[in-house]
Amino acid sequence: MKPIRHFLAEDTIDNKDIDQLIAWLKTYPRLTKGKVTLEFEAKWSHWLGTKYSVFCNSGSSANLLMYYALEISGRLKNKKVIVPSVGWVTSIAPAMQFGFEPIMCEADKDTFGLDLDHLEALLKEHQPSTVLMVQVLGVPHKMDRLMALKEKYGFFLLEDACAAIGASYRGRKVGTFGDMASFSAYFGHQFSTIEGGLVSTSDKQFNDLLLMSRSHGWSKDLDRSSHEKYVKEYQIDNFHSPFVFYIPGFNVRPTDLQAFIGLGQVDKLDWIVSRRQENHARYKKHFEGKLDFQKCDPESTVCSISFGALARDTEQRRNIVSALVANGIETRIFSAGNLGLHPFWYEKYGKFSAPMADRIHHCGFFLPNNPSLKIEDIDFIAGVVLEAAGK
What we know:
Blueprint: H1 15-25, H2 35-48, E1 52-56, H3 59-71, E2 80-84, H4 89-97, E3 101-105, H5 116-126, E4 130-134, H6 143-153, E5 156-160, E6 168-169, E7 172-173, E8 180-184, E9 197-201, H7 204-214, H8 224-233, H9 256-287, E10 292-293, E11 306-310, H10 314-326, H11 343-349, H12 355-363, E12 364-368, H13 375-389
Parallel strand pairs: 2-3, 2-4, 4-5, 5-8
Antiparallel strand pairs: 1-9, 6-7, 8-9, 10-11, 11-12
Helix pairs in contact: 2-9, 3-4, 3-7, 5-6, 9-13, 10-13
C-alpha cells in the first residue's frame, strides 16, 4: 500500500490566507462575533445573490436553524416534511429533534437528489408543508420541475447546499431556490472557515428568526426597527432590552476570526468553481459509457467536492476501492449512502429501501476533486478506476 498522494479533501486555506490572518491578528482585533461577521455575511449574500445570510458555527447548525426558524414562524399548515434518502444525517436530524414527521423519498437516477416522480406521489398522499432537498455533492438537481412542484403543491423548500457552494442551475446559483438554504464552510468543502455554516434567505421574517435563534433568542442582532418592534410589543424598558429572550434559542454563533478567513475565501470562489468544474468534466470524459456517475442538465455548472460514481455491484466496488488504496488515492463510500439504512432512522421509522438509494448505498464511492489537482492527476486516478473495474 502506497502512502496517500491524492487526498479526498484538501484545505482551501492557503499560506497567503494564513499570512493575512496573522497580520490581522497583530492589530489585536475582537475575535468573537462582531463587525467582521457582518461584513462576511454581506459579502457572501452579494456573491450568492440573496438578501440575507446568517453565519453560524457549522453547516449542520445551519440546517438546525433552518428547520427551527420554519417551525416557529407560525406559517406551517402541518409538520410533515419530505426528506431525502441520500444526504447527510444532519439534513434530517433536526426534523426529528423538533418533532416534525419526516417522510423519506427515493433518489433520482441522474443527480441522486430527490426522485421527483416519487416526490410528487408523496406530495399527493401526505400534503406536507415542507420539502428538504439536497443539492447532492455540488451536482445541481432538476430545479425547473422541482420549482413547478413547489408552485403546484405550495410547500416550503429548504435547500441543503452544504456541499454545493458555487454550483448553478442554468445560470442561477444553487442556494437561491429555496425559502432558506444552508451551506457548509468545513474543511474539504468548496471553501473553509475552519468550521462554519451559513443560512441564506430573501425572506425578512425568516432572517430575523434565524438571527434570534442563533444567539439565545434575543433581539439585539436584529436591525434597529425590528428590535424596537419587539421591545414595544412586549413593553420592555431600555435597560433590560438587550438581554430579553423572546424565543428559546441556541448559541451556535461563529467568531470574527472565522469570518475574516471567509472574506478571503469568497474572493477565491470563482477560481475554485472553475477548477472543480474542469476536473469533474475530465472524469466524465473518462467514464462516459463505462461507469455510472452523477449527471445533470448540460447548461448547469457542477462544483463538486468529490466526484461521485457507482460501481456495477459491491464486488466491483471492492476491486475499485482496493486499487485506489493501493495507489495512494483516498476514497470513501458515497456520502452516507441511503440514510434510511442507518440506525438513527430505522430504529424509529423502520428501514427505508428503494432501488436507486440502495444502489448508491452499496455501490457508490468518491474520487478526489480538489482545485489543486492537475489534468494528469485526474487521468491517473481515472485510469486506476477503469483498470480495476475491468477485472
